[in-house]
Write a structure and sequence with these properties.
By secondary structure, the chain is of the alpha/beta class. It has a single domain, classed as NADP-dependent oxidoreductase domain (TIM Barrel), CATH 3.20.20.100. The chain contains 11 helices and 14 strands. The strands form 4 sheets. Strands 3-4-5-8-9-10-11-14 form an 8-stranded parallel barrel, surrounded by 4 helices. It has a two-stranded antiparallel ribbon with strand order 1-2. A two-stranded antiparallel ribbon has the order 6-7. Helix 2 links the parallel strand 4 and strand 5 (74-79). The radius of gyration is 19 Å and the shape is globular. The structure holds NADP nicotinamide-adenine-dinucleotide phosphate. NADP nicotinamide-adenine-dinucleotide phosphate binds next to strand 14. Residues 17-20, 45, 145-146, 167, 212-216, 220, 223, 225-226, 249, 266-271, 274 line the site of NADP nicotinamide-adenine-dinucleotide phosphate.
């Protein structure tokens, strides 16, 4: 396993996303979490809305059933999304964290992220909520998700706490974070920056990028691995799989980890064997030639 330093935490580079665990049986979830730990994965990403809260609840029941487990895990959750709106009001943030802690059955979160930018965000109001959460010990560290550079700078301007994380969609079939920079000063369609320079800003300011939905195409529409819609990409993954001696999904993981930003990969699998296989991607250092070959096979162009 590779690790990333996040505010004093030694966080695994492969992390478990808990968006899809709501319907897992207790025994299967226990096996899954222990497989993660056995493979060096210590980081679990939640959100108050996953499974309508049920993802946190099933996880909380596991923590209750296995005393001592909580202390082995880094727990992150997110809040700020409500039906048909986003809400970074102090009241909503505080209430959400109480709900998260109660469902997870823990007295603190290692990290809290604001899930998606709220157009009505007031940094001073968020600051009051963060101060209260830090003072009470309910939340130890803070970050954001799906924020562009200016949105992070604006929020940070009102906070005492340093924002440590930005969670963004990134993977071989979702490369917006890097496309525009590669196409700078061209008329290529990808020269448009749709991510507000989030990548460079995070690197310059020491925020860890967490790549969500790493194996999905589109707005997490489906898995590109093995999908006949993407013959060139899957062909290249199969070819390099032989060269590096790991599976295509491990290579797709290695492709994200190879970026010098030092990202975490937030995997959404609920399958213990698949998670174990994904972790083997940490042992692969893709050559520059192969990294670019995969980028091109995914359907991108270079000027
Ligand atoms: N911040 C945000 O706005 C945001 C948005 C979305 C997600 N997220 C986070 O990112 C995490 C990951 O998202 P995700 O679940 O969409 O990511 P993902 O890892 O790209 O996709 C996981 C899904 O794909 C399936 N899958 C994975 N590899 C496969 C393969 N080789 N063949 C067939 N099926 C495969 C998994 O099924 P199995 O369970 O059977 O393996 C699972 O249903 C979430 O859990 C959440 O924590 C954050």
């Amino acid at each position: 396993m590779k690790y990333r330093q996040i505010g004093g935490l030694q966080a695994s580079a492969v992390a478990v996303g808990c968006m899809r665990i709501a319907k897992m049986e207790p025994a299967a979830l226990s096996t899954f979490v222990h497989t993660a730990l056995d493979n060096g994965v210590n980081f679990f990403d939640h959100a108050d809305i996953y499974g309508g809260g049920e993802s946190e609840s099933v996880f909380g029941r596991l923590l209750a059933a296995e005393p001592g487990l909580r202390d082995k895990l880094i727990l992150q959750s997110k809040c700020g999304i409500r039906p048909n709106m986003y809400d970074f009001s102090k009241e909503h943030i505080l209430k959400s964290v109480d709900g998260i802690l109660s469902r997870l059955g823990t007295d603190h979160l290692d990290l809290l992220l604001l899930h998606r930018p709220d157009a009505l965000m007031e940094p001073e109001e968020v600051a009051e909520a963060f101060d209260e959460l830090e003072r009470s010990g309910k939340v130890q560290r803070f970050g954001v998700s799906n924020f562009n550079a200016r949105q992070i700078a604006l929020l940070q301007s009102g906070l005492k706490q340093k924002l440590l994380v930005n969670q963004l969609q990134f993977g071989l079939k979702c490369t917006g974070l890097i496309d525009h920079a590669l196409c700078t000063n061209t008329e290529f369609p990808h020269s448009a920056d749709r991510d507000g320079e989030a990548l460079d800003y995070c690197r310059l300011n020491g925020l860890t990028i967490q790549a969500w939905s790493p194996f999905q195409y589109g707005f997490f529409e489906g898995v590109f691995l093995g999908d006949p819609k993407f013959p060139e990409l899957n062909g290249k993954l199969d070819e390099l799989s032989g060269k590096y001696g790991v599976s295509p999904q491990a290579l797709a993981t290695a492709w994200i980890l190879r970026h010098p930003a030092g990202m975490q990969v937030i995997c959404g699998t609920t399958n213990a064997q698949r998670l174990q296989d994904i972790c083997t991607g940490c042992g692969v250092e893709l050559s520059r030639e192969d990294w670019y070959a995969l980028y091109l096979a995914a359907g991108n162009k270079l000027p």
